[in-house]
């Protein structure tokens, strides 16, 4: 299976691309000029005409850039999360890619009190700062594109991606959140799912 990791120039993305290459044919894509990853491609992630050729032959995408914001310019950070996710997923839809994984962050829930009992109603509590809002904006864009029925989007939040997680295991878990679909049948159901995964391996699906 050929998988594009979009945001492979970021720490999460580089680690994930390296982990996934053991089982998948990985296309590593990022906005920065250089990377240590073999076959890395520099692409303007905010422009469809730049990203489209890089996705040729890809069967699934993992979008990391929105959930791993970088830089000091808050406007640019939010733009990269929202517009970058929109560009990635609409490009995938345009060439018939039917599966996407959107990586996000459990920091969106960190302001819940420790005694809070997790239930199906819990929602993100982002802070009014770009680093906190960016992953949520990426999630909201992903959810709305999934609602068009053209692509399955699985959003995976995790606690602390900067520690060395077993990312290949998390990918496999995320891939099982929705049943595999026959080619051309995506539009028959709502295709957005989210999983919240802690470092101890616990996984909450919604």
CATH superfamily: NAD(P)-binding Rossmann-like Domain
Number of helices: 5
Mean pLDDT: 78
Major sheet summary line: 8 strands, mixed
Secondary structure: helix percent: 25-40%
Low-pLDDT segments, ≥5 res: 177-190, 198-204
Q: What's the shape?
A: globular
CATH topology: Rossmann fold
Q: What would you report as the Rg, rounded to the nearest angstrom?
A: 16 Å
* Strand coverage percent: 15-25%
Question: In total, how many beta strands?
Answer: 8
Terminal Cα span? 26 Å
Q: What is the domain total for the residues?
A: 1
What is the CATH-assigned architecture? 3-Layer(aba) Sandwich
SS class: alpha/beta
Counting copies of identical and different chains, the oligomeric state is single chain
**CATH class label:** Alpha Beta
Order of helices and strands: EHEEHEHEHEHEE
């Amino acid at each position: 299976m050929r998988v594009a990791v979009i945001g492979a120039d970021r720490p999460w993305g580089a680690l994930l691309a390296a982990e996934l290459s053991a089982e998948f044919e990985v296309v590593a894509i990022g906005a920065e000029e250089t990377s240590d990853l073999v076959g890395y491609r520099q692409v303007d992630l905010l422009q469809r005409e730049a990203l489209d050729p890089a996705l040729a032959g890809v069967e699934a995408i993992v979008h990391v850039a929105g959930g791993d914001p970088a830089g000091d310019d808050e406007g640019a950070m939010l733009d990269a999360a929202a517009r970058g996710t929109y560009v990635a997923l609409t490009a995938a839809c345009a060439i018939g890619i039917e599966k996407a994984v959107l990586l996000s962050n459990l920091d969106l829930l960190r302001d819940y009190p420790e005694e809070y009992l997790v239930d199906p109603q819990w929602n993100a509590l982002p802070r009014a700062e770009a680093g906190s809002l960016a992953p949520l904006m990426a999630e909201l864009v992903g959810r709305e594109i999934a609602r068009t029925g053209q692509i399955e989007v699985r959003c995976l939040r995790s606690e602390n991606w900067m520690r060395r997680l077993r990312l290949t295991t998390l990918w496999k878990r995320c891939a099982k959140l929705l049943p595999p679909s026959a080619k051309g049948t995506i539009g028959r159901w709502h295709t957005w799912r989210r999983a919240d995964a802690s470092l101890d391996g616990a996984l909450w699906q919604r």
